[in-house]
Amino acid sequence: MKENKNLEFKSDITNTFLKTVSAFANYEGGRIIFGVADDGDIIGLSDPVQSCLDIENKINDSIRPQPQYELSVQNADKTVTLTVISGRNKPYTYKSKAYRRNDTATIEVDELELNRLILEGKNIDYEALPAGKQDLSFNTLERMVKQEIGISSFNKDVLKTLNLYSDAEGYKNVAELLADENSYPGIDIVRFGESINVILKRTTLDNQSVLDELEKAVEIYRDNYQLEVIQGMTRNKIEKVPEEAFRETIANALIHRTWDVNAHIRVMMFDDRIEISSPGGLTTGISKEEYLKGSVSILRNPILGSIFYRLHIVEILGTGILRIKEAYKNSNKKPVFEILDNSINVILPVISYEDLSNDEEVVFKVLSRAYPKSVSEISGEVPFGKSKTTSLLKKLVDKNIVTVIGNGRGTKYKLS
Fold it and tell me: Could you tell me if residue 321 is inside a domain?
């Protein structure tokens, strides 16, 4: 057994453990085992029962407000386990200072993090605070509200209904995020060449409605990762990265990021992938496993999330990860999710047709320059028999590269 973010060992009872009590109560909770050395060796306590009383008195006298905790004695090895529950009345302080865990160390929180704890303790989200800028216009929001929700008149009453404005405090921070002009950093998009030392193009979307930033980011994606293949008189679109996965990732980044830091959502575009980094780690109350499974969703910015849902930008709140994975279900390459303390990174790989076998590529090229064709028509243009051509087509269908049209003798194939 080793120390970790939620487990600490103490060989004896000194006031230093009180900092960790503050950290556990402020965040995810945890355990402190007394009578165990830092390396995990059990040394025991001379009087575990008295030790429990000493621990309880120290917590009651020193931690404000009173955290929820439990004490238990292990008679076999004379150790005491203190279990601290994550509390709601944050911040929990020791000597007027709040603490957090950084791996196996306990450190004091900075001013920004202290303000977040205070808001969390009051059950207030940053997006719901009064905006610093109150002279706002909403042309993009108005257009989308009328188009997607069907509201004919856009006024203060609509803004109140959307939870963007109150008579008492005026516009909220979330309203400024949606305004045509704002004071917030947006999305920094960089297209790289053969290495990170070669920047082909850089676009920074700043100080504008997050709705505009989302659409402009998608336009840049389309310019770089979508192409058209001419099939006779028609043009078919090929997505090197699924548009649904990219749009969902950017929308999630906007909904879940921390807006109280001066940092951009970073989009790095490469020939073989797109990397998207969003400021802010997981919200309190959700584990890495729950996030990756998409089984639990706790929105950092619930008002903004609700707006995106009403505008049909996201279909169902909390299903973003599942939808990103679904976009790659027929690809042998899968998206990667990296969960860090202060950011979440998503890597969307290019579904490269270079991964096709030589024989599959021959069939692909035939379909890329013609109308939908039957197996007989395709086999007439490739150096394979009908049986092998059928087998190759099935593999391309399984990879979601080719689509089947019709059935029976009328069955034809075209690029997806």
Answer: yes
